[in-house]
Amino acid sequence: MRKYFAIIAFITLGATLASAQDVPFGEVPDHTPMMNSTWETINKLMYKVTHKDNKTIYTPHFPDELKAIDKKTVTLPGYLVPISGGRDHETFMLSVLPVMQCMFCGQGDIPPMVEIFMKKGKKVRFTEEPIKITGTVRLNPNTQEGNSEIQILNAELME
Predict the structure, then answer these.
(1) Which of 13, 93, 143, 149 is deepest in the core (most CB within 10 A)?
(2) Of 130, 124, 127, 128, residue with least CA distance to 155
């Protein structure tokens, strides 16, 4: 009887561990990427790679299609990715995938992201749900002026 109990316990433990490997952190919500034509254009950002003094330097290269939306008003759906702590954010990153989904895992490349600067006096409360932002595109060749090569300025949250 003990032998059968040990075998059943071993099989149950093995099945539990096998299913835990399929979803290591529990149930992962299904998120739909928020890709649209503007995101497709933003995703065309490329980098020129040079080397100086044993350092690799990545300089952003903006193809003509991307330059065409510079200083234009765009609307982007996406997921808020905080840059700093707190519930309400004036500056944050917007991604086609949620912050809870590892951006470096799975298939494909790292998803496109842009830095959002809300209109003065406006804030967005953190949410895991998709949001929609409208604002003016700024191509930023110098990331010393913010965190991203592509920024949305004077942004407003769309309802």
Answers:
(1) 149
(2) 124
User: How many alpha carbons lie under 13 Å from residue 27 in its C-beta half-sphere?
Assistant: 2
- Burial class from Cβ neighbours inside 10 Å (0-12, 13-18, 19+) for residue 15 reads exposed
* Helix, coil or strand: residue 41: helix
Q: Which helix (H) or strand (E) holds 11?
A: helix 2-22
Measure the CA–CA gap between 103 and 113, rounded to whole angstroms: 10
Which range has the worst mean pLDDT, 14-18, 35-39, 76-80, 134-138? 14-18
How buried is 102 (Cβ within 10 angstroms: 0-12 exposed, 13-18 middle, 19+ buried)?
exposed
15, HSE (Cβ side, Cα atoms, 13 Å)? 6
Q: What tokens appear for 147 in the block?
A: 């965190």
Note the pLDDT of residue 67.
97
Helix (H) / strand (E) containing 53: none
